[in-house]
Amino acid sequence: MARIGVLRIGSPPDPLIDSFRNGLNNLGYVEGRNIAVELRYSQGGEDQLRELATDLVRQNVDVIVAPGGTTARVAKRTTSSIPIVITAVADPVGEGLVSSLAKPGGNVTGLSNLSPDLSGKRIEALKEAFPKISRLAILVAPSEEGGQVKAIGDAAKALKLQTRFFQVNSGSDISGAFGVMTKQRQDAILVIGSGITFEHRKLIAEQLIKLRLPAMMPHIAFVEAGGLMSYGPSFADLYRRAAIYVDKILKGTKPAELPVEQPVKFDLIINLKTAKQIGLTIPPSVLARADKVIK
Fold first, then answer.
1. Global pTM?
2. Is 115-233+267-294 a CATH 3.40.50.300 domain?
3. Is the pLDDT of residue 166 over 80?
4. What is the CATH number of domain 2-113+234-265?
5. Mean pLDDT of 159-177
């Protein structure tokens, strides 16, 4: 029976891991019959992640799935021999996880979510929907800033937006950040995807509705939790595709020989129910481009 270790920030229920499991099922894997999935959730930062990663290595799992930049970096530092499959890492090359997308060259491969490139487009979509905004707050986990800071800065400068970054590592950090935003009278918010923001997506949505602020989210799970809008790849699809990498590795292919893939489809999701709660009107031109509208 093959054993797959999964290193995650957050806690169940976890719809993205459900997508990964569905991907495994579609490939003929059944938990308890021909595969075991060892889930390890961290809510205590990198120190706890290292402990969990070390435990997976000690158990000699066949593959480690490490979604996100932080978990991927910790997993890579913990083992150079067990294959690691990443999902939704913004910049695998810049993070030092792989030598190149075409030729990873080590024990890490998987999927990138192109977040640095998407940050500018997300800001453009937010500005198109709400032309009057001039001050933009960015909610981000320090571990996920990377190349996104420059991309955000360039896009904001082109659109004449003032930016303020709020670094968050916990739910209390998020609540505190919204308190500061209230005093500073920010016009809109950009939420950067990370394990921390995903874990607290409902809290973020509740705060946004309370402050009646428009916001751009990283993907649909945030919008389904009550967020206003998102633009980006389907994370559920990325996690399903991660199962394909696991399957190939279990059948003998080395991670170094599996190119890192990028998203092929990007969706604009709008939550009209939230828009009504906040008292915002989404322009017809933006609604017409939406791939999904939640009513």
1. 0.83
2. no
3. yes
4. 3.40.50.2300
5. 93
